[in-house]
C-alpha cells in the first residue's frame, strides 16, 4: 500500500461495508482526475500507487483493461466491482458524495460538461503526456521530477534497476519523436485556445460560476503543463528546476486564461473542501 493511501483514507466509508481501492500510476494525470473527484466528494478510498509498467501486475490481478485509474469496489460476500475509466470514476464519486457536498454535474449543464470532458480526454490526455515525457526523459532532472512519491520503496528499486531497459520502451510507447512532439503541441495549443475563447467573457469556470466535472477534468489533465504548486501526489520540485524549454512554456501557459483556471481550480477546489 502506498503512502498515498494513508492520506486519502480519511473520510467515512460507503454504507454496507464497501471498501474502495484506487489502483494508480501515481504520476498519471488521468489518475489525478479520479483521485481529485473521490477526495473532493468525500468518498473514502485507499490508493495503491505504482510506477508505470509495474502497474501491470496490479491491473492484471484486478481484471479489466490494463489502464489506470481502476477503482475496485469490494463488498463483503460478493465479487469486486470494477470501474475502469476516469470519467466513470468521477460520476461514481458524484453519485456517492458525502452529505453537504455539491454536485459536479449540475443538471442544466450536463451536455456541455460531457462535451468538454470528452474533448479534454482526447485532446489533452495523450498529448500533454507526450509533451511532458518528451522533455523530462531528455533531461537528467526529468528522472527526479517524473517518478517520485506515492509508490513502495520495493517498486522504486525495481524500477530504477530496470531503467536502462525501460527508458527506450517509454520512447517507443509514447512516440517521443520531434514530429510526434510538434503534433502534440499543436493539438494542445488548439484546445487551450478554445478554452481561452470560452473564458473571454470573464466567467471563472467553463460553464459559468460553478466548478464542475469539466473544470476538474481540464485542471487534472493539464496539470503536467501547468504544474500547480498545490499538486501533492506526486510532489514536484519548483518550476524553475524543470528543463528550460518546458519551464518557459509552463510559465507562459500559466498567464493564459486556461492556465489561470487550472491554477485557481487547484488553489480553491483541490484540497480541504
Ligand atoms: N480513457 C482512460 C485512459 C487512461 C490512461 O490512458 N491511463 C494511462 C496512464 S496516463 C495508462 O494506464 N497507461 C498504462 C498502460 O496503458 O498500460 C481513462 O480515462 O481512464
Automatic annotation (TrEMBL):
Residues covered by the GST C-terminal domain: 106-272
Pfam families under this entry? GST_C_2, GST_N_3
Which Gene3D superfamilies does the annotation name?
1.20.1050.10, Glutaredoxin
Regions annotated as coiled coil: none
Q: What is this protein called?
A: GST C-terminal domain-containing protein
Record the organism: Klebsormidium nitens (Green alga)
Amino acid at each position: 500500500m502506498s503512502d498515498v493511501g494513508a492520506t486519502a483514507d480519511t473520510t467515512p466509508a460507503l454504507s454496507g461495508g464497501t471498501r474502495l481501492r484506487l489502483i494508480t500510476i501515481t504520476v498519471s494525470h488521468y489518475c489525478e482526475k479520479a483521485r481529485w473527484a473521490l477526495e473532493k466528494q468525500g468518498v473514502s478510498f485507499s490508493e495503491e500507487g505504482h510506477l508505470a509498467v509495474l502497474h501491470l501486475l496490479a491491473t492484471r490481478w484486478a481484471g479489466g483493461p490494463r489502464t489506470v485509474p481502476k477503482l475496485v469496489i469490494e463488498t463483503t460476500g460478493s465479487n469486486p466491482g470494477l470501474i475502469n475509466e476516469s470519467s466513470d470514476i468521477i460520476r461514481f464519486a458524484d453519485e456517492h458524495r458525502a452529505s453537504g457536498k455539491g454536485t459536479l454535474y449540475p443538471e442544466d449543464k450536463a451536455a456541455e460538461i460531457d462535451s468538454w470532458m470528452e474533448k479534454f480526454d482526447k485532446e489533452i490526455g495523450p498529448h500533454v503526456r507526450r509533451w511532458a515525457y518528451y522533455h523530462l526523459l531528455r533531461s537528467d532532472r526529468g528522472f527526479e521530477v517524473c517518478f517520485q512519491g506515492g509508490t513502495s520503496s520495493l517498486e522504486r528499486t525495481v524500477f530504477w534497476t530496470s531503467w536502462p531497459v525501460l527508458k527506450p520502451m517509454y520512447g517507443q510507447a509514447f512516440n517521443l519523436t520531434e514530429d510526434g512532439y510538434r503534433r502534440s503541441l499543436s493539438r494542445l495549443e488548439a484546445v487551450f485556445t478554445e478554452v481561452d475563447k470560452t473564458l473571454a467573457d470573464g466567467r471563472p469556470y467553463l460553464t459559468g460560476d460553478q466548478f464542475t466535472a469539466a473544470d476538474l477534468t481540464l485542471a487534472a489533465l493539464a496539470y503536467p503543463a501547468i504544474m500547480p504548486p498545490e499538486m501533492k501526489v506526486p510532489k514536484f520540485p519548483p518550476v524553475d528546476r524543470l528543463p528550460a524549454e518546458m519551464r518557459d512554456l509552463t510559465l507562459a501557459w500559466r498567464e493564459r486564461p486556461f492556465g489561470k483556471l487550472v491554477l485557481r481550480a487547484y488553489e480553491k477546489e483541490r484540497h480541504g473542501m
